Amino acid sequence: MPDDVDGLVVTEIADDSPYRERFRPGMVIVQIDRTPAEDVAAVRTHLSPGMHFCLVWNRGGYRYISFRYGN
Fold first, then answer.
1. Helix (H) or strand (E) holding 43
2. CB 40 within 8 A of CB 8
């Protein structure tokens, strides 16, 4: 991973997660809703129920992934 990629590394995905096909171990979540993903506590306070999008770094490139949080 390049030194300039900062964020939260995905280490595992629950077997029953509806996002198992979108998120993969080793991905780095760089931003959620254009807010830097600096630590888990900060991300949890930022999220509210509804649709969100995150910028991830994976396999040498960036892409956006949408996901629903909560209900």
1. helix 40-46
2. yes
How far apart CA 62 and CA 30 sit, in angstroms, is 9
pLDDT, position 54? 96
Average pLDDT, the chain: 92
- Alpha carbons within 13 A on the beta-carbon side of 46: 17
Instruction: Look at residues 61, 8, 67 and name the one whose alpha carbon lies nearest to residue 33.
Output: 67
On whether the CB atoms of residues 23 and 10 are closer than 8 A, the answer is: yes
Place of tokens 């910028």: 55
- The answer on pLDDT for 52 being more than 90 is yes
pTM of the shown model: 0.87
